[in-house]
Design a protein that fits this description.
With about 375 residues, the chain is of the alpha+beta class. It contains nine helices and eleven strands. The chain starts with a helix and ends with a helix.
Length: about 375
Amino acid sequence: MLYPDWVGMLYEYSRSLCAQKGRTHVGQRKERNLARKAGLAGVVALGGFALAGCDVAAPTAIENLVGFGWPKGITPEAESMYNFWIWVWVAAWIVGFIMWGLFLTAIFRWSAKKAQKDGKGEFPKQLQYNVPLEMALTIMPILIIMGLFFFTVQAQQKVTALDKNPEVTVDVTAYQWNWKFGYAENKVDGENYDGADVERQKLAEESAIDPEGTPNPNPIHGKSTGDISYLNFNKIETVGSTEEIPVLVLPVDTPIEFRLASGDVSHGFWIPEFLFKRDVYSHPEKNAQERRFQVEKIEEKGAFVGRCAEMCGTYHAMMNFELRVVDRADFNEYLKFREENPEATNAEALKHIGEEPYAVTTSPFNSLRDTRDADNFVDTAEAA
């Protein structure tokens, strides 16, 4: 069938328009794909940069914004945990801003009202079975969780590592509602002090088995109910009282090992500036707990309050102690004074090295129940 020339021209023109439109759609689709890939790469990069800095100190402005009241740490382990906390929050804020941006964009740009206003019909474009989008929404959370897991393990391993070659070893014994601190070992500046009390340790080990003739002997896995063989005893010990907060004296810039155990119920050893608390159990090894933890060093001298962080009974809130960090030479002098003067009090030893004799960060509580004026703490100096 023959057509006039103008019909053929119109046909060719329409074909060229369709081809041009097709090329335009292909180009637009490519541009959109590139934009999506660039956006995805940007999100991953931002999150990666935020998480990669997890062990790097954040700017002060960021710390003030997302620190949420955390104290500044005084050990390298505390600094590592603090930096991890800050940068995780930075990563969370980045992801949050992006997700809220997408959420608000979807509300105001792709809503039925907006489509109807633009003359596109009220039924918006459907995105189900969009494989690239679904893959992105699946893979991105997996990558974020993997990144958080990696840096969490990194910080945790630094805190729990037992390879810091401690020069001072301290035995920490908790019991309702007090603390006992014993100095087991001191190698500061060439010292070679072994503080184990052999005689008391032997008596403690004998307590594991009930003597013959005891009714219902050794009822707990073949051991006595009075078994305290797992506790450590030292020649130099500091014990608190109702009138006096126990003060744990340690040297600055020194690797230290803490060995924890409870004489009764579960407690928690917590110094806020360590940004770390450790449960304190009786029979820790039988409870599958590593009783030791180490710090590379305490970087700041001064007094820091310590608390029990595990609800342990009626006077749990009163179970405070103080960490006093002094010069290495003063620490050696402190131990020497206590070794040469076994009857001297901890307050006298502190006074000997020029330190405040009693706790300055917390006060003993009045254990009596006859106070009605809220003045329920004891002035240690007056009590002494």
